[in-house]
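WARN retry 2 of 3 for item q-0093 after timeout on previous attempt; input resubmitted unchanged.
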Amino acid sequence: MKALVYTGPEQLEYKEFDDPSPHDGDALITIERVGICGSDMHAYLGHDPRRNPPLILGHEACGVTQDGQRVTINPMVVDGTSRECKAGRENLDRNRSMMSIPPRQGSFAEQATMRGENLIPVPDGVDPAKAALAEPLACGWHAVRMGLDVGWIKNPKTLVIGGGPIGVGSALSAAAMGITDITVTEPNALRQSYLTKTCGFNVLAELDAPDSYDLVIDAVGYTATRETASQAVVPGGVIMHIGLGGGEPGLDVRRFTLHEVTFIGTYAYTYQDFRDTAAAIFDGSLGALDWTEERPLSDGHRAFEDIRAGKVAAPKIVLVP
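OK item q-0093 returned
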């Protein structure tokens, strides 16, 4: 089969690769669409020791099984026996694995394999580019759900820091869950304009009013955005930290203590979050989802270069095998 193969730092080659071999319980899936994730970029730059070349990256995918069923793929694999799994918190299973982390190959390819229980059927008529968004959108869904669970204000004034796919997914999830006052900050002027016109968001270049937001979602995760989150949150407010930009400081812990701010790190999604997100995509609760840009898988390397250079207005590039 043809695949986009990570062969070394900043190197991706579109070439022939061994066909996948399904293991017991695995389905063979012909990939229809696959999104480029920030973690794919992290690996592409050589910053992920878990992902060693040669390797097929990509885990935000949908496709068609051998029996003709269209599916979207939950790429997180757990065995279900841990205490975390039994509590419905599969994302915290210490032995979890993921599509595109060895020994599993990813989905920047014509075909991939995944366990049957990780596949969500896609109704007829759902655009495959939308179905492929279930994985990144589930991350934002999980963050917003947890933020509402711990917060004491039912309709919190919400700030989402970052207009990339995780930030956009968080904002859309917030709206789907009934939050009506949502602001997104995004410093890239090209992205600002795109999000305003395409998604109808209230988009600002930077924080407009400190000490003003009940729920703050940091979808970037760098020192500067953590500082912004610390400044933005009200007394008794909630910060959900979903971004994985870096591990540097930036939190105002003294302010958190004096004002009883809740800070929660949030990673990925539970299996139920993934199912709920897919259902929200299928019934239209997450909007038109027309903010993706499609490119052929064969042009994948150029897509990575353009994303890195800040030349892409759309929050998500979806590759077509």
